[in-house]
Amino acid sequence: MGARERLIDELRAHALILGEVVLTSGRTAQYYVDAKRATLRPAGFQALGELVARQADEWGATAVGGLTMGADPVACAALAGGFGGKAFFVRKEAKQHGLQRRIEGPPLAADERCCIVEDVVTTGGSTLQAIAAVREAGLQIVGVLSVLDRLAGGAERIAGAAGGAPYVALATIDDVHPERDDR
């Protein structure tokens, strides 16, 4: 079994929660995918790391990161999976003390080639915030990657904001919950 199939199996077994929930977007859904429940387990983390490192390398990325919480396990998995670049986290707002940075991690040089990562994409709002922060810092975006896309319009919004950089979802809700009612 390949890394993608292992990741999907882990998402099905540990991340899919059935029942009514309110999503970050404010929408109500009859299921929820908490990807961290799968990606913060050894099998899920290993599969994720392999996939993200491979994709980031394919795009020629030198740094991997995104909005904190959703992107944190994904960026760290890339490093564990053999990605030779840097990982970073984007805060929603610049920190008001210390170095007062919005982008945390090793300093990113002006020529960094960033791969923006996210765990679950619904409308793409968190990913758009990360893209805006990275662009504001003057950095290049070479691609955007999510662990799972709920197929709710986020991909289109991300593609528009990413300035021509490709968007890849390692899995979609069709892979993890194909029998859902909203198909």
Fold and architecture overview:
The chain has 183 residues and is of the alpha/beta class. The chain has one domain: Rossmann fold (3-Layer(aba) Sandwich). The strands form two sheets. It has a six-stranded mixed sheet with strand order 5-4-3-6-7-8, with helices on both faces. Helix 5 links the parallel strand 6 and strand 7. The model has no long low-confidence stretch (mean pLDDT 94).
Keywords, separated by commas or semicolons:
183 residues, alpha/beta, Rossmann fold, six-stranded mixed β-sheet, 7 helices, globular
- Total number of beta strands: 8
- The total domain count is 1
Sketch the major β-sheet.
6 strands, mixed
* Structural class based on helices, strands and sheet pairing: alpha/beta
Return the CATH class: Alpha Beta
Order of helices and strands: HEEHHEHEEEHEHEH
Q: Can you name the CATH architecture?
A: 3-Layer(aba) Sandwich
- Helix content, binned percent: 25-40%
- Identify the overall geometry: globular
Strand content: 25-35%
Give the radius of gyration: 16 Å
CATH topology (fold) name: Rossmann fold
> Uncertain spans, ≥5 residues at pLDDT below 50?
none
- How is the largest sheet built, in terms of strand order? 5-4-3-6-7-8
